[in-house]
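User: Predict structure, ligand protoporphyrin IX containing FE.
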Amino acid sequence: MSFPQNTGHAAPFPRLSILLHWVMAALIIVMLFVGLIMAHDPTIHYAQLFTLHRTVGFLILLLVVIRLINRFASHTPDLPHDLPVIMKLAAHLSHILLYGFMLALPLVGWAMLSAGGYPITLWGGCHIPPLIGFHPHLWGALRCLHSLLAYGLILLILAHIGAALLHGIIRRDGVLGSMLGR
Ligand code: HEM
Ligand code: HEM
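Assistant: Predicted complex:
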């Protein structure tokens, strides 16, 4: 399949949107690695990694709320007019899913620890109240859901990076540049 190539015309995202996108992208990628290490090799600094995982998880929850408010309050550049409708739909759907996963993962993590009756302490000793009551039978289901969401997010991020490279290298339509501030 060949794509029409042009030299880039999409307007840049607002500065705050760009900052939030890249800070959150870095934090989420670190969180995925930390979670996988914790779950699959608990001999590696488990307690420290878990404190980091909880703390950064809550930071991501706070940032995604700020990001959604900013998303609705600021202007998002249009996708190129010559982008096939199916690709526009895929882009919109994948962005909605990315926001959904960014919200759901920390909320499920928080609910999981609450259901198991575990204390939720962040770096510096800050204590977070439980999100739901003590329901030991729910702990297992939420733990499983947390993993499924994490693996789903990994696949979605890979597809997202693939799409960004398609825009940046093959179509050269300015979409990648719009998130790089160009
Ligand atoms: C965007 C935020 C988050 C991401 C991307 C994330 C990602 C992950 C990943 C990839 C795993 C390993 C899953 C597996 O292989 O089974 C994991 C495990 C876990 N996460 Fe998260 N997580 C997030 C937020 C949270 C939060 C906020 C909490 C708690 C407050 C939490 C608690 C846990 C726990 C308890 C485990 C299991 C560790 C173990 O098996 O020893 N996560 N997370
Ligand atoms: C190296 C990795 C990444 C690259 C190259 C990248 C690139 C981009 C680009 C070019 C856009 C603009 C696309 C458009 O307007 O259609 C975008 C938007 C977006 N990205 Fe990424 N991204 C990366 C990582 C991530 C990660 C890890 C997440 C979250 C899990 C993420 C979430 C989003 C979301 C939600 C949008 C939509 C923004 C909006 O319209 O509000 N990105 N990304």
